[in-house]
Amino acid sequence: MSTPTWDAARENTHAAGLAAKLPPARMKLADADATTLAEPLTALGPLPAFPTSSVDGYAVAGGGPWRLSGQVLAGQTAPNIQAGQAIEVATGAMVPPGTEAIIRTENSTVDADDRVTGEARPKPEWREIGEETADGEELLPAGAAVTPAVLGLAAATGHDAIDVRPKPRAAVLVFGDELATTGAPRPGQVRDALGPMVPNILRRFGAGTVPGFSPRGPIEDTLESHIAVIRAALDDADIVCTTGGTMRGPRDHLHAALDALDAKYIVDSVAVRPGFPMLIAALPGGRFVAGLPGNPQSAVVALVSLVVPLIDGMSGRSLAPLSKVTLGADIAGRGDDTHLALVRIDHDGLAYPTGHTGSSMLRGLAGGHGFVVIDPGTSASAGDRVRFVPVPGAAA
Q: In the 8-state DSSP scheme, what is residue 305?
């Protein structure tokens, strides 16, 4: 398998995820946040369903002054209004049939004999039936992300539940005998940084979690252990993210384990720096293993490069185009490879390299907002507009 470009690897991974997208499920609105619409969201009725006052004031008909003859609050059914009458209305309340104008409270007076005087503004102060949505109108297409605002819209138009594609469940397996999980590591050991970091990044990327596997490790560096723990994780997870062992060194068993599990590689290394020894493998049953390099920054590069497109595809979402930022400093390319350069967006709105950007370093990552994309065979200069890959939950 030839080494794909970074863009091709993203597209191939998204296509594989889309081909294995999760089946729809009907979810109550309270449970559907951060999922993806499996069917278009349509209005179950017009919104508003009745003429609705936009202000607190007095509905009037005919010429004034008007005799105050009642009140309508939100949630009440309004009576008909007759010429010469005024009915007090609250914001969000039904407008009485026959209303010719609504005079705002601050533009009106009520005398001791309950006579209302005032002047209405030229524009009607209420919303008409169906002003926001018509009955049966498509509001959002299938594939749209379900956000809190989408849940509010669904509720407002009459839905109690919606058809969605659930979040892909992700398990994290941390490989490496050399890793310590508590306290300061002894000489020759390395503290596991990916175990605390990767599950939380996955959650912010829109993945669900599998109890007991987020993360599991460190897992000893033997082929038998790798095969057993990956097979166990695949019982419950749609995506198994492993850390380390993505090369083919004497203690790297991931490729051999995947071969034993009848995996088919979607991507096996990418022409990108840092993080090139990343992989995505498809397993029987429409599940995937994402091999992340063991160096922390390289692992995050693999997450934003391959795992995000995979999650989007399995969720039935399109591969969103990347936004662009303006550079505040020059950034060198990496020859024939794509360079994902870690940057911070400063107060002037420009992107600057963070420093401490070695593939094994976390300090630059902790202070950065994401990566700018420097295309193969190019460098970028201050003032250039370049593509930007955000890291959710990055520095404030």
A: I
Cα–Cα distance for residue pair 360/315, rounded to 1 Å:
31
Dist CA 169 CA 237 (whole Å): 5
Of residues 302, 247, 255, 251, the one with CA closest to residue 274:
302
| pLDDT per position as a tens digit, 39-86 | 999 999 999 999 999 999 999 999 989 999 999 999 999 999 999 999
Say how many CA atoms lie within 13 Å of 122 toward its Cβ.
0
pTM for the whole structure: 0.86
| C-beta separation of 173 from 244 below 8 A | no
Show the domains of the chain with their CATH numbers. Answer: 6-22+166-314 (3.40.980.10), 33-46+133-165 (3.90.105), 52-127 (2.170.190.11), 323-390 (2.40.340.10)
Question: CB of 299 within 8 A of CB of 194?
Answer: yes
The β-bridge partners of 376 are: none
Residue 286, exposed/middle/buried by CB under 10 A (0-12, 13-18, 19+)? middle
The tokens describing 2, both together, are 């030839």
Lowest mean pLDDT among 148-162, 174-188, 263-277: 174-188
Contacts of 74 (CB under 8 A, 6+ apart): 90, 91, 92, 93
Using one digit for the tens of pLDDT, what is the confidence trace for 104-120? 999 999 999 999 999 99
- Give the position of tokens 């409270």: 105
Residue that has been written with the tokens 């498809």 in this structure: 282
The residues facing 89 across adjacent strands are: 57, 72
Query: What is d(CA 171, CA 202) in angstroms, rounded to the nearest whole number?
Result: 9
Q: With H, G, I as helix, E, B as strand and everything else as coil, classify residue 260.
A: helix
List, in sequence order, every residue forming a beta bridge with 116; answer none if it has no partner: 66, 110
* Cα–Cα distance, 307 to 201 (Å, whole number): 11
Closest listed residue to residue 57, CA positions, set 1, 96, 102: 102
pLDDT tens track for 7-38: 999 999 999 999 999 999 999 999 999 999 99
Pick from 368, 359, 373, 374: nearest CA to 392? 368
